[in-house]
Amino acid sequence: MKKVRYIRNLDQVSQLTDAERTALAKVENKFKFRANDYYLGLINWDDPNDPIRRIIVPHTGELKEFGELDASNEEANYVAPGTQHKYTSTALLLCNEICGGYCRFCFRKRLFMDGNDEASNDLTEGINYIKSHPEINNVLLTGGDPFLLSTRRLESIIRPLREIDHIGVIRIGTKMAAFNPFRITQDDELLEMLSQYSTPNKRIYIMNHFNVPQELTPQAFEALDLLNRAGTVTLNQTPILRGINDSPAVLSKLMNLLNDAGVHPYYFFQCRPTAGNEIYELPIVESYMALIKAKKNVSGLAKRARMVMSHDSGKIEIVGLTDDHIYMKYHRARFSSDDERFMIYHRDDKAFWFDDLVPADDSEYTETA
Asked: How many CB atoms lie within 10 A of CB 218?
């Protein structure tokens, strides 16, 4: 049985030079580092711009003043310990504050900092909240990574959710198939549990997080195949990241590999303006054009993927671009008055976030059918 060794400080990363460790010490002190020997083993250490290195190894650019720790104001969504309810039909349960590795661009890096208590070990109050709100029909287990919980602990969350009549889809947000696929391939009890609660009429959806093709190793494909065979529905979502996957060729390869394996590309995110993330940010126009060009080389199945921003006010989809304007709509909205709202903004090739854009005129908002 493969045993993955977790690594919690840069002194344990033998491939780094002493000078690199010294330069990165301040970054590590501010934003914690966590990885494992399997994932670090995917890095080409001869390439300073290796994409997996950029994903997992700290960078001095993270110290530049930029953004906020809670860039989408998730604090406003809490209704119970570890429980968010932003969109009418969806609830989030933050059931863990640890991941298999800490992506340097993570929008919830605040969870991994000392003194944060947003995630909860006791979700009883949150599950009772969901039970008492019949408008909620789907729940996302997130964190942190739920697959870092023991199978028994994970079942203790999924079982009471599946007993609620008005809950259909249960989603699990995870990067373990990329970070540590052995968590899936070597735990028959996990697969049996998922199969038990992913029923013919109420599925469990696994929201994977593959950023680049290099993460799709034979071990990762095996994990994804086992998840599919267990009766779960597997999808993928990733932000578009400067110097990591912002090339149309990289994005189309990622989409084709996933799609061929029965893992549907779902969301491509505009990277949130989270503290320390400037080196990973792309302007909205660049992100959108990279994805549009990538979609030219994928099938219609992969073209279903949407590009969105997870803004305080809702999930905003970028739907079109001209020389003068950017066209957007609310895919999900915090307030019902914004449901399906269509918006026209002046094109700004330097804008990184929704708040940076200027409305085209006073009538930029129109309702769509």
From this structure: 8
Bridge partners of 238, per DSSP, are 268
Q: What whole-number distance in Å separates Cα of residue 282 and Cα of residue 350?
A: 9
DSSP 334: S
Which pLDDT value is given to residue 117? 80
Identify the H or E element spanning 320.
strand 314-321
CA distance 319 to 342: 9
Question: How far is residue 323 from each of residues 32, 295, 349, measured CA to CA in Å?
Answer: 42, 20, 10
**Residue 186 tokens, joined:** 């070597």
Q: Note down the domain range covering 151.
A: 74-367
User: Do the domain assignments include residue 181?
Assistant: yes
1 within some domain? no
Q: Please list the helix, strand and coil fractions of the chain in percent, rounded to the nearest 5, in that order.
A: 35, 20, 45
pLDDT reported for residue 362: 52
Predicted pLDDT of residue 129: 98
pLDDT of residue 201: 97
Positions in the chain short of pLDDT 50: 363-369
Sort residue 231 into left (φ over 0), alpha (ψ -120 to 50) or beta.
Answer: left
Count of domains observed in the chain = 1
pLDDT of residue 45: 96
Q: Sign of torsion, CA 339 342 346 352?
A: positive
> Is the distance from CB of 300 to CB of 313 less than 8 angstroms?
no
Q: What amino acid occupies position 26?
A: K
Report the C-alpha gap between 345 and 298 in whole angstroms. 29
**Mind giving me the DSSP string for 179-227?**
H-THHHHT-HHHHHHHHHHSBTTB-EEEEE---SGGG--HHHHHHHHHH
- The DSSP H or E segment spanning 367 is strand 365-367
27 within a domain of the structure (yes/no):
no
Angle (deg, nearest 10), helices 284-295 and 248-260:
50
Q: Is residue 62 part of a domain?
A: no
Calpha distance 83→86 (Å, rounded): 10
Nearest Cα to 159, choosing from 191, 132, 197?
Answer: 197
CATH number of residue 123's parent domain:
3.20.20.70
